[in-house]
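Q: Can I see a sequence and its folded structure?
A: Here is a first one.
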Amino acid sequence: MNIVSLEELPQEKITDFFHHHWGSPKMVISSGVYDCASLAGFAVLNKDNRITGLITYVIKDAECEIISLDSLEEKKGIGTLLMKAVEKVAADNGYRRITLITTNDNLLALKFYQKRGFRISTIHRDAVEKARRIKPEIPLIGNDGIPIRDEIELEKGVTGDGK
């Protein structure tokens, strides 16, 4: 697997990825509205130079917040590799905490993050309804037929060893 900084990729390739997988590069969560195609991050490229995983993040108040994480091939270590890259950035820059937000229907993400040391820190009740006012295309029903209503914030302390 080849991991690269998003700065090394053509902007159009990143924007196309978000349009294809999210409908738009615009991410609306309780911490803000983001253009994911313009954020810092990393991508995993396959042998055909296609993106098979992508992570974006922002730095705010000396903390690192993951805004998006996509792995197109499950159980191959792509998500873990991307997480470790961001954890290294956070550790190298002296940030003490990494946070992220996911929705209540995203059970796979909740499992993935908790297995990697993240803990649930906050529940933002009805946050997705507020987000729909800005991005109405957010679906009402998500994974496994679960209504998408709430955001779940997770956090992890940063260590210098990338764990």
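Q: Show me another, different protein.
A: A second, unrelated one:
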Amino acid sequence: MKIDGLTSEIRQAGCAGFCYEQTGRPRFRDRVTFYRDGRVLFERYCYGEAAGRACSMWASGVDPQGRILWDYDACSYTGKTEAPVQITGAGHGGLVLDGKPAVWARVETLKTDKEHGYGALKMLWLRLRGM
């Protein structure tokens, strides 16, 4: 899948990004957020007594073949290789990552995301630049 379709859909919605979470019964709550400027954020949350965010990792973008360009060196978490590697399909509000049968469903549309650097001023700046 080409990332251009997803980023143009985000821009048309006038928001900062779309958040996707893996459906089914995964051991962790993995979340992938695609932003309007092409950046991607992977976050892994634990359940149970150690509930909370275990790691987060950024990607500068997605290449033309759909491979996500993660910055593995910036993440100290040992499970970073479990982050999805490639977007292999999309449709009906979900994504297929790495060709696995589990669908990643869209769970949130972010108008802004100040915590990750997409506040109201940056959103205005991106819109003015056509990004």
